[in-house]
Known about the structure:
heterodimer; A: alpha/beta; Rossmann fold; Cytochrome-c3 Hydrogenase, Chain A, domain 2; five-stranded parallel β-sheet; two-stranded antiparallel ribbon; B: mainly alpha; 8 helices; 2 strands
Amino acid sequence: MGMDRQESVKSLFTAKSAKVDTKRGDAYYEKLYDQCRTRLDELKKLAPISNRMDFSKSIEEEGVDRRDFLKWASATTAMLMLPASFTPLVAEAAVLMNRVPVVWIELQDCAGNSEALLRSDGPQIDEIILDIISLEFHETLMAPSGHQAEKQLEEAIEHFKGKYLLFVEGSVPMGIDGHFGTIGAKGETFIDHLHRLSEDAAAIVAVGSCATFGGIPAAAPNPTDAKGVMDVVQGKPIINIPACPANPSNMVGVILHYVLTGQVPELDSLLRPKFAFGYRIHDNCERRAHFDAGEYVEEWGDEGAKNNFCLYKVGCKGPMTFNNCSIIRYNEGVNWPVGVGRGCIGCSEPDFWDKYAYERPMSNANIKAPTGGVEKTVDEFGLGLLTAAGIGIAIHAAASVAAGKKSEENA
Amino acid sequence: MKKEGYVRIERMTRSMRIIHWVNAISMIVAVITGLYIAAPYYQTFIADPAVDKYVMAWNRWGHFIVAIIFDVTSIIVFYLAFATRFLKTKPYEKDVPTEGNIKQFFEVLLNLLTLNRRKKFDSSQLDSFNSIFFTIFHLLLLWMLLTGLQLYVHGLASGISSIGAWWPWMLHLFTDWTIPVSAWLNGSSANIASIMDVRISHHSTMWYIIVWVVFHIYYQVWRTIFWQEGDISIAFGGDKYIKVDEKA
Lengths: 411, 248
């Protein structure tokens, strides 16, 4: 743990900007193209795992025509910050996604991320792709239960040793030796479960705020001592896709990147893929002009709200949040929180529940006084401090005047 | 006007006084604009078209301009204090916990607490008590400077700026460590420090500075009234007075 903290501080010191360099010259991209080509050819030779659906058939059945699919492929190529010439490769990679085994486990969570990718308004390409990935194990979605489910998991991790992507949803409760959360007939704690499954995973993808930074279970007072995957597992490549829920587009982006290149995408200091978390919400927000103009929603449903004014005063944390939802939005671009008029709660940032999600400006947020103790807002604390100083000064001044008079009398 | 039996002592040169008031004005502007940025406390005139009223933008612009003035002044002051003979007495020498300095610190504190009944120190030059007091102030300002630049670099997520990529790169290099330190200062119990910790710390440090300023002004006025050495004019005329027999 100590080492871990040191590592995270070290990475903060050496953090580069969140920008992905997209001008690396033809030589670089030609080499990358060839690498991807070779990898896809190799994947093609593999038979689709188990009896997964064929992608071309699935999209036909869902009524998506090829033109829409190619539009999606070029948009996704852009999202991954690759040149347009990679579009055919991305399309191919999407079709080959049923060759990459995925094991999806849920720990201390609400299944919200699973829900996010299942409960959209209609099956879109991102969701179809998540349908056809070779999901070897997913407690909520799979048909087997009990011993059958456990057997399925054991077989999957044995059969795809060192090859599967481990998706983790939910935080890890570390309190009372992990006994806040156990799974299966043997009562394996979530900690042991995670350690055992990550042992032979090719990489771990932590999905959602809980799995990445602890999320809501880790909010004060954090009764279960919940932690994110990166605070528990060491020595494995970890990709964090925070947000509550994580955007299915970003999940697909990460899997596609892995299928395409066999590597994890470029990550920032919080292990988030830069292609998705290199943007500040605020800088691409449709209400930004109202922020600069000083036009704010004062309370829900007022004239400002009706005119799409900025939500900063009702607590929008867009200026402090890095995520691409102001660009790609949710549910295949239908809308996103600021778009529906309720402000950003910074759900993709660490400790978001305590420090971002209070729907008031930061200065009105409850914080702990540095001494611990009662929660006050920053301004209440400051004004309290100022009042105490004022009272002290007033007493000193009054006493000085009294003492001065006395000494004059004596003189 | 020279009072009989007193000798005039120069305490602040013209340049020092200019720096003092530039700092004071910058701070007032920074607090006024900073409070607006934290929670916009006045509504703009709705009748104005949006294109004419960059109210938040102007507040942020003002905040950044005084911040830059502040930062540049700090660098100049730092240079003058440590690398030149600009200051006749080196204030940081008064911070060193030598026997004399510790004694002086408590003597000045006792003078304040006994309401000027006891005054057993040389009040002609900077004393250890005020020196420590100002050092605390400088640390608070340095913290504001670093956390402010950290908040500023969030807007340069692209890694580029109009003056080149070195600028955000340098800001990250010099201020990213304020994220975990802010979390620690805020008493955060979270697993991972968040950039919001920096913002909370930047805002609460403002309150510490305001409290500092209130005490500073009170103490200078109090000294002027009770010591009767014209201390208040140090910041205006640059001089104070000391009784001749006291000096002798």
